[in-house]
């Protein structure tokens, strides 16, 4: 279990700034603070070299991202002979952030500590009491140790954050693998059930339809039996493909027909107009469009055999609109039982895609199905 984290939130403007912009702003702030530290403590009559070394230390901070150890070496004279204490501390912190606890960091910290402990000129240093020497030694350790600790803390915190992100990604990947294993087991089980039960029943329907087609003398009954046999055979082919995908563990969406195959559903008496490029339609909407036309044409064959049918697939106001309209059915057409489950399934599919589906009779005695899916 990973501990709950409370990340520090930066101001929105700073968080949205690029890394280069933040780096430039940090360099400018470091130079300004170091310059103020030098300018505010300049004595009245300093030696001629002290200001030069101090301002050199301030200018050397511009190199701290590229030559951190060299920057520390350039800042040491300004701290020892002048007043550039803050510049030396900033340079040492940058070195510790880059190198962590390496020999360069140890050397840089030792030099900064010596600069804080030893007072220049030597006469002033020798005049100090032992208590002042002890106090200067304590401040030397503090001045050199604090930048090292802060620099290492920043680096270690970044490494720890990266490690936590890696652990989170590993945990998510493990969850996905576990879910994929469970889905594979369920798909295999579903494939066995579909093959053993559904395909067996559909095969019997096809066989019975073939026997009826051969044994009957009624032309309409023979045509209906041939249609049933053809639909059963097509259903078996699609079922075998789906079972194969379920057993292989592939994505069933890869074999689902889409809008580019809608024209294969057209038969005699069906006029189809498609004014939408199938490539521009999202795959879920494309599959839903195919199933809508398929179900609507199936209902026409079941309840309005021989009726003229019009299929329109258009795009309007960012939506894909599918309209299937049929005329009045022929008289004497045998009625097939229907429970309305096909249209109910289409409405559920449309609802999942944030679409709508309307179906109902028309004024001329026909029927109309209209589905709208957002693109």
TrEMBL record:
Recorded GO MF terms: kinase activity
Domain Signal transduction histidine kinase subgroup 3 dimerisation and phosphoacceptor intervals: 186-249
Pfam families documented for this protein: HisKA_3 (PF07730)
InterPro entries hit by this protein: HATPase_C_sf (IPR036890), Sensor_HK_TwoCompSys (IPR050482), Sig_transdc_His_kin_sub3_dim/P (IPR011712)
Keyword vocabulary terms for this entry: ATP-binding, Kinase, Membrane, Nucleotide-binding, Phosphoprotein, Transferase, Transmembrane, Transmembrane helix, Two-component regulatory system
Record carries keyword Phosphoprotein: yes
UniProt enzyme class: transferase
Superkingdom of origin: Bacteria
UniProt entry tagged with the keyword Kinase: yes
Catalytic activity: ATP + protein L-histidine = ADP + protein N-phospho-L-histidine
Protein name, UniProt field: histidine kinase
